[in-house]
Automatic annotation (TrEMBL):
Residues 136-491 form the PcRGLX/YetA-like central beta-sandwich domain. It comes from the Bacteria. The keyword Signal applies. This is Tat pathway signal sequence domain protein. Pfam families: PcRGLX_1st, PcRGLX_2nd, PcRGLX_3rd. It comes from Actinoplanes couchii. The lineage of its organism: Bacteria, Bacillati, Actinomycetota, Actinomycetes, Micromonosporales. Residues 44-125 form the PcRGLX/YetA-like N-terminal RIFT barrel domain. Keywords: Signal.
Length: 905
């Protein structure tokens, strides 16, 4: 690549950005280097369920990750799993990351819903138990068949049916699994006189078997939605099946690639055809409501009639069992069954986060009858009868509104069950920019506007083209209509999939994710810090629900800053609105979970990662690989940055769950440095023409390099593209070779190999944001891996000097670094230098910097909640004096000070 001309590289980058519809293929699973001879193994690891107790149902099965200290196991190590009482549980295991010496760093493990569940498990080196009936995958030229031992699922390799059929034994439970979408050419809000609509069906381009048992199978299906000659809305859908399970987990991702001014999606769903057997009075419909609530009805009801068929008949229908022989009924009912309306269509519509309604009708062309309503539905329905049926649902159903579960044609021989991820009962998606530019036609005008709204606006940059959304779905092929208690249990498993987790102590001892330690309340001073961390986290946690931070495109993010006058977060004020990972909120939330093991903390961070990984970054087009700075709309700001698409924010959820979608995303970021060829980040501050040289690109060694380096580190430890290791190590060593290392100004970057070009004259270019997008965390994790004393010394010097005195900075770098911001945030840099140098005075300085609270929270800051009632606010709220920036950086600084210099507190 070093011999390519600049024109060739620029052209290839532009083509790649426009044509890369999907992320790259998955990295190979093999040890990267020769193994050490002294692998030492590891004691058994105790696992528990995240939410505690023993879940009554699993969502098909569960998959989780476990870290291991360096030198513990070889990649081919087998693992066995037993319950607390010693019962062997069939488990499938595989490595997901390696240490530089080739030993396993992370492993993933999967169990089915079939085994007996326990509160605790033991994972240890050993031969795994085999499933009673191993899952099998049979691949043919036209279809792929997965047999779990309970259900058989046939996948098409082409065409508009992703799933041809789902069978349970000899019974066909469902057929024709399709992706459906519709759009219109005018927004619903503008009340256009004429609106043209189009319907689309997902068409398969490729199917890949990513895992094939014996416990777990994973199939990835890629394609586009098509209608006639038009093909758009690329999708990537994964199906997860487990041995002995009748559940199918589906992870659905779609990418928006339309013109937001002309293409308004008004429906997006997954649909199956469900054969109907038996008489209408033996066809059952179930909807999970809020809590344990269940609506239980039949297509043709025989309760509440003027004539009574008999108590046994009524009770059987209500409980979902086959009714007795009609000859045993009261014949005044039997002879008049044809007069009882059969309600073949049902719809549960969750159009807002705080209200759902259920309707039914006899068939198309007739009025809907309102059944009931509630606040927040669990997102699960069932259609079938005593001989079997399909349960279907969507995770985060009310959080990701407007959603819908629909049943149609249940009075006929063939019904349809649809999960609407965007309900056609709602208005169409309107992804247009929220204002007309306000006359900001020139860079000086845009910079001046930035001074008042904090929004970095530029015409054409507020596009959603290339953003994505991932939704998790569940389908169960059931042998009969389940009892209402099981419907409630399935709904819980769908809404909050049970997950096995290790302890904070084990995860910390494994040495993963850099500088952190489990909660420590061993001294009064530590108790104060731990309490503050808990209070601060709780203050943000309550805001999501009270402020209704929900919706298809919004759920998972939090707001950036607060407006105390209006008692609202600044949802409508430029760059103060959605956080979009600004100053590493994701990192703070994940470290809080790692330390505490708190299930609420995990679910909060999980939702944020799923959102920021999809909505806040581009997966297609010219800005593929970049994220968007914080703003009123997630994609609206004109600052497109790899510090937002940061792979470092995604690694936690990936390794804790082995989520393949996140693996795709992180892999796609390995070459995101190519965006330096197509977007000039400093375009508003210079009059020079943009003519990037691949051998001398403008990339500083801190903020954006740190985000790139986190992608390279992840790719290296996942044994992916070798260029990642090359660029990471070249970057580290050539930055360290600069006169002032990470503080040096004026160096340029080589795209081909990740090197920084030499500079002979010492200078300093340091900004307050330089290390608060994961660079500090990266360096704490990567330095023990590379074992390079020059790299370590230069980084330690940077950490020591950032909050150092003018005299220290001038003496060691020749230049005063200026009046730098975020002193509290960089207390953890001081703490790192203290721990590396064994300097207790530096350690005490770090704690003083944390407590002083420069650009953060002072020691006296209160995180107490203050109740605000109407009429001062629309809804009663608990107000706290917090901001996302300050919380994220205080949280990260306090956590790392506790880990690095606990004795100097």
């Amino acid at each position: 690549m070093a011999h390519l001309s600049r024109r060739t590289v620029l052209t290839s980058a532009a083509v790649a950005g426009a044509a890369a519809t999907f992320p790259f293929s998955r990295p190979a699973a093999a040890a990267p280097v020769a193994l050490p001879a002294d692998l030492r193994g590891h004691d058994p690891v105790t696992l528990r369920w995240l939410e505690g107790g023993t879940p009554p149902e699993l969502a098909a099965g569960t998959t989780w990750g476990v870290p291991w200290p360096r030198g513990s196991f070889a990649p081919g190590q087998q693992f066995s799993l037993t319950t607390g009482t010693g019962t062997a549980v069939p488990v499938q295991s595989w490595p997901t990351a390696w240490w530089p010496d080739g030993s396993v760093k992370w492993t993933a493990h999967a169990i089915s819903a079939a085994p007996d569940r326990a509160e605790r498990y033991r994972l240890t080196a050993g031969t795994p138990a085999a499933p009673a009936t191993p899952l099998t995958v049979t691949t043919g030229p036209k279809r792929i068949v997965v047999d779990t031992g309970v259900v058989t699922v046939t996948f098409a390799r082409s065409g508009d049916r992703l799933v041809e059929s789902i069978r349970r034994g000899d019974t066909v439970i469902a057929t024709d699994g399709r992706l459906i979408a519709s759009s219109q050419d005018r927004p619903s809000t503008d009340q256009a006189a004429t609106v043209k609509t189009e319907s689309f069906t997902g068409v398969v381009d490729s199917v890949k078997v990513e895992q094939s048992g014996p416990v777990r199978a994973v199939l990835k299906v890629d394609g586009k939605h098509r209608h006639g000659r038009r093909a758009w809305l690329p999708f990537s859908v994964r199906f997860y099946l487990y041995a002995g399970s009748d559940g199918i987990r589906v992870v659905h991702t779609f990418f928006y690639d339309g013109d937001e001014k002309k293409s308004f999606i008004n429906g997006l769903g997954v649909r199956f055809t469900v054969p109907m057997r038996g008489e209408p009075h033996d066809r059952h419909v179930r909807f999970a409501g809020a809590g344990d609530g269940v609506l239980a009805e039949a297509v043709r009801g025989i309760t509440g009639l003027r004539r009574d068929p008999g108590a046994a008949v009524q009770q059987a229908q209500y409980e979902g069992r086959a009714t007795p022989d009609p000859a045993t009924w009261d014949q005044r009912v039997t002879s008049r069954l044809h007069w009882i309306p059969a309600f073949g269509d049902y719809s549960l519509r969750q159009l807002t986060a705080n209200g759902f309604e259920i309707y039914k009708r006899t068939k198309t062309g007739h009025s809907w009858v309102r059944v009931d309503g509630g606040r927040r539905a669990a997102g699960l329905a069932y259609l079938g009868g005593p001989a079997g049926g399909l349960a279907f649902g969507m995770r985060d159903f009310w959080q990701l509104h407007p959603t819908e579960l629909e049943i149609s044609g249940a009075a006929s021989d063939s019904a349809r069950a649809t999960v609407w991820m965007w309900s056609p009962r709602a208005g169409a998606m309107d992804l247009r920019f929220f204002h007309d530019g306000l006359g900001q036609d020139t860079y000086p005008e845009q910079l001046d506007a930035l001074e008042i709204t904090y929004e970095d606006y530029e015409p054409g940059f507020g596009t959603p083209y290339g953003v994505a959304r991932t939704t998790e779905l569940m389908f169960w092929a059931l042998a009969s209509t389940p009892a209402s208690s099981r419907i409630a249990a399935l709904a819980d498993a769908n809404a909050t999939p049970p997950l096995l987790v290790g302890s904070p102590q084990h995860n910390s001892a494994a040495g993963v994710f850099g500088s952190w330690s489990p909660v420590d309340r061993s001294t009064p001073a530590k108790v104060v810090i731990e309490d503050r961390l808990d209070q601060m986290h709780a203050a943000h946690l309550v805001q999501t629900d009270q402020r209704n931070w929900y919706g298809f495109w919004d759920y998972g993010d939090i707001m950036h800053s607060y407006d105390g006058v209006r008692h609202v977060w600044r949802y409508d004020v430029g760059g103060y609105a959605w956080d979009n990972s600004e100053l590493s909120t994701d990192l703070w939330l994940w470290y809080h979970y790692l330390r505490t093991g708190d299930p609420k903390a995990y679910r909060y961070a999980e939702a944020m990662t799923r959102h920021t990984s999809e909505v806040d970054m581009y997966h297609l087009g010219r800005w593929r690989g970049l994220g968007t700075r914080h703003g009123v709309q997630h994609w609206g700001d004109s600052a497109k940055q790899n510090r937002i698409s940061n792979a470092g924010y995604k690694r936690f959820l990936y390794y804790l769950t082995a989520d393949e979608r996140l693996g795709d995303i992180m892999h796609s970021l390995v070459d995101s440095d190519r965006t330096l060829l197509v977007l000039n980040a400093g375009r508003k501050l210079t009059d020079q023409p943009f003519d990037p040289d691949p051998n001398a690109l403008d990339l500083g060694p801190t903020t954006n390099w740190g985000a790139l380096a986190l992608a390279w580190l992840t790719e290296w430890e996942r044994n992916g593209d070798p260029i990642a290791r090359t660029k990471l190590l070249n970057g580290l060593t050539t930055i360290a070779a600069l006169p002032n290392g990470w503080a040096q100004g004026g160096s340029t970057y080589r795209l081909a190999d990740g090197r920084f070009n030499p500079v002979t004259t010492p200078s300093v270019s340091v900004g307050s944001l330089s290390s608060v997008f994961g660079l500090i965390e990266l360096m704490a994790e990567v330095l023990p891996l590379v074992d390079d004393e020059t790299v370590r010394a230069q980084w330690v010097k940077f950490c020591r000097l950032y909050n150092g005195t003018r005299e220290e900075q001038v003496a060691e770098t020749g230049t005063y670094w200026g009046s730098l911001n975020l002193g509290q945030a960089y207390s953890r840099a001081t703490a790192y230098a203290a721990s590396q140098l064994g300097d207790p005075n530096l350690g005490r300085r770090a704690w003083q910097e944390l407590r002083t609270g420069h650009a953060g929270y002072t020691e006296a800051h209160s995180f107490a909640l203050t109740r605000i009632d109407g009429p001062a606010v629309l809804n009663p709220v608990d107000e706290a004096d917090v901001s996302a920036n300050a919380s994220a950086q205080y949280g990260l600084a306090a956590i790392q000070c506790l880990a690095l210099v606990p004795d100097q507190i």
